[in-house]
Design brief:
It contains seven helices and no strands. The protein is mostly helical. Helix 3 (45-74) packs across helix 5 (100-129).
């Protein structure tokens, strides 16, 4: 039988493919492409710090999320409760992106990315102590917000260095391998 989660997963997959297709069609503006292709405008070291911070956040997210559902069930949280907490975690992964411009205005991209990484570390400390739904909810929300801040700010930080396509691909590959 089809569970209610299958249509939701299919819808999410469709939206992801749609966003990718739109990004490929619209792509960057010609001015930014021209700047990014200037050989002297970029050095691989420009990508190192933002990539390492984002990769560490992705590693932390994956490591903590691998253990969290089982840990929640072990603490007596029902399957429906676990599903609800994970759903809110997903919302918290993307919602902070709406305020990213304001935050980076005050902290800069590097500061915001580092704040995100610190939040991922704090989330680990919260999650290892969690014993009930409230503790897991707090840890999962902090983890999601930290991941969002680190990933988005590091991406903007990297973009400001006018990277060529190979550097963006290497950045994305590092994040994928870290997860």
């Amino acid at each position: 039988p089809v569970t209610p989660f299958v249509p939701a997963a299919l819808a999410a997959a469709f939206v992801q493919v749609l966003v990718l297709a739109l990004a490929m069609v619209w792509g960057p503006h010609e001015a930014s492409v021209a700047k990014a292709q200037e050989p002297s405008a970029f050095h691989w070291r420009d990508a190192l710090a933002p990539t390492m911070i984002a990769a560490a956040a992705w590693f932390g997210m994956t490591a903590l999320m691998l253990a969290s559902p089982s840990a929640m069930i072990s603490c007596g949280i029902s399957a429906a409760g676990v599903t609800g907490l994970l759903a809110w975690h997903v919302v918290a992964m993307y919602a902070p992106g709406f305020g990213m411009g304001v935050l980076t205005t005050f902290l800069g991209e590097a500061g915001t990315a580092l704040l995100g990484l610190v939040l991922v570390i704090v989330a680990r400390l919260v999650l290892v102590q969690a014993g009930d739904a409230a503790g897991f909810a707090a840890g999962l929300m902090v983890l999601a917000i930290g991941w969002c801040l680190a990933t988005a700010a590091a991406t903007v930080w990297l973009q400001k260095t006018a990277p060529p396509r190979w550097a963006l691909a290497a950045h994305d590959a590092c994040l994928l391998l870290s997860a």
